[in-house]
Amino acid sequence: MNNQTIAIVSGLPRSGTSMMMKMLAAGGLEPLTDNIRTADEDNPKGYFELERVKQIETDKAWLDDAQGRVVKLISALLRHLPSSYNYKIVFMRRAMPEILASQRQMLIRRGEATDKVPDDKMAAMFEKHVAQVESWLAAQPNIDVFYVSYNEIMKDPRPHAEQINQFLGGALAVDEMVGVVDRALYRQQR
Q: Alpha-carbon distance 46 to 54, whole Å?
């Protein structure tokens, strides 16, 4: 990956984006983070986030610092990426029942209501959103996307780490990437 390209890890919340950020960091790709959101019971190995990305509609100045690095950006914010940069996006996919179960568990830990939106409606909203994002991504000439299954990585991380390494230019340490995958943290299996 060249120094002008911005690597992005994206996907729905609770789809494995933090694990992928940790894999890429272990492999040698420098993450752009601020360490404001620290590790907790939901993400014991950390979130690897930059708070400023949430303001991408009005604040794009941080993108200069992201060149040659990797940053996490949830799928809902991808459409705000300016076309003046080139991006390589590792987009995480995960079985929908697992995403919903993981979100529910996180809400329980926070003491928040878990019944605001029924699972079937939430799944339909998420699936529609992902389809729209994928369609938009496919139409962007400055964006390359590699889709990764969290479920498949948890089964056998090596082939996926090798493919991600090739997608990002072939200079990452695959053994270190594979070493990050912690099956003990795969708590919402379906």
A: 18
Checking if the pLDDT of 187 tops 50, the result is: no
C-alpha closest to that of 50 among 180, 41, 82, 61: 61
pTM: 0.88
**Rounded CA separation 176/7 (Å):** 18
pLDDT the model gives residue 36: 74
Q: Under DSSP, is residue 110 helix (H, G, I), strand (E, B) or coil?
A: helix
Computed from CA positions of residues 96, 15, 186, 175, in that sequence, does the dihedral angle turn out positive or negative? positive
Q: Superfamily assignment of 6-180 in CATH?
A: P-loop containing nucleotide triphosphate hydrolases (3.40.50.300)
CA 47 to CA 38: how far, in whole Å? 7
Cα 58 from Cα 171, distance rounded (Å): 33
Sequence spans of domains, the chain: 6-180
Q: Rounded to the nearest 10 degrees, how much is the dihedral formed by the CA atoms of 54, 34, 18, 182?
A: -170
